[in-house]
Amino acid sequence: MRFRCSCSIALFTLAALLAAPARSEPVPDPGWSFTVAPYLWLFNLKGDVGAAGRESSVDTSLIDLFQNNDSVIGIQANLQARNGPWTLLADPTWLRVTDDFDAGGDLASVDGDITGDVFLIDLMVMREAWRLPLGEPVVEKGMQQPAVALDLLGGVRVWVVSTDLDLKVSIPDPVLDGLERSFGETHSWADPVLGARATVDLTRRLHLIARGDIGGFHIASDLTSEMWANLVYDFGFFGHDAFAGLGYRAIYLDYDDDGGFLIQSWMHGPTLGVGLRF
Question: N or C: which end of the chain has fewer CB within 10 A?
Answer without folding.
Answer: N
